[in-house]
Amino acid sequence: MYIPVISDVFGWLFKLFYGFSQQNYLITLFLFAVVMKIVLLPFGIKQQKNSIKQARLRPKEMAIRNKYKGRNDKATQQKLSEEIMKLYQEENVNPMSGCLPMLIQLPVLFALYNVIINPITYISSYADSADALTKAYRLALDLGDKVHVAQIDIIREISKAPEKLAAHFSGEGFAQISEELSGIGQSFNIFGIDLIEHANFTWPLILIPILTFVFAFASTKIIRKFTYQPTTGDASTQASMGMMDWMMPLLSVYISFQFAAAIAVYWMFQNILSAAQQILLCKLYPVPQVTEEQIKEAELQLKGKSKQHKEKKNVVVDDYVVDDYDKTTETDKSGGNNKKKEGVMSTRKVGISSKVRKIYAEGRRLTARKKI
Description:
The chain is mainly alpha-helical and about 375 residues long. Helices cover about 60% and strands about 5% of the residues. It contains 15 helices and six strands.
């Protein structure tokens, strides 16, 4: 699928990386995957920061869920959803922001596929001859105008039997064109696997869907381990998550049978880089751990019984408010009380009253208003 501007930019990058890698198509795919991951990195950082916000709201969310725990009727569940959504809106948190990077990947894949299946236009030096080569290919294979022809098919035919196309090619310099395109065709052959071909059950192309599944499954597990999971933890949710861990890799396998193997290889690189990126983001922007104590405190806040919301009361002892240290009194050198007398003063401890000890035992903090 041709996407204006995006396909042209991708084609330019592909040609740049293809020359930089000494016409190694595997390295070209890897470099392109790295660039795409760098371009999308800001979205990954934003997603990680959003996960941190969600984790901080987790105690309040769980308090709301516990409030309606055991009540599964439709009206209660709707009320639950409304309160949770209100909580997220008040804190300016979007729980669906994690879907954005995945949605952006779709046009990237479509544009990349267009570049891969049309290497004559985007990689070779003979883009102007693409139409003449396509026409010669149709005539050589007796194909109608309605049959779609991918340029990788033309390159494959030139590599196998260039004389078929030469007889129908109306342009000039077919020998030079054929030599360059045959070289491009050879660059698609990586360890005996022709990346132009679709995956199938023949050796070694069968390795493509197998490796696609392995990398997709491993990447899913790693990313899940290093990503905040805002789930309720119930059995049905856990079962759904477990099913998704299998469904997405299996979907990748299906796609690998439908497109050129080069697309599947690119997807493998993306899975590897995505796992590495998530590990890095987890280290740079760690998600706070939620404890049971925080959830209980949030439940108390929801009920209006939290210690943090109670008015702190200061206790006055001998006309002074005492802090978390022993009460002292100023004395002169002789040890007698002499607060009004100026001169060198020292301090000595006096006993803590039973009232203050009780305050300490209750965990309440006393603040001093002035020095004693």
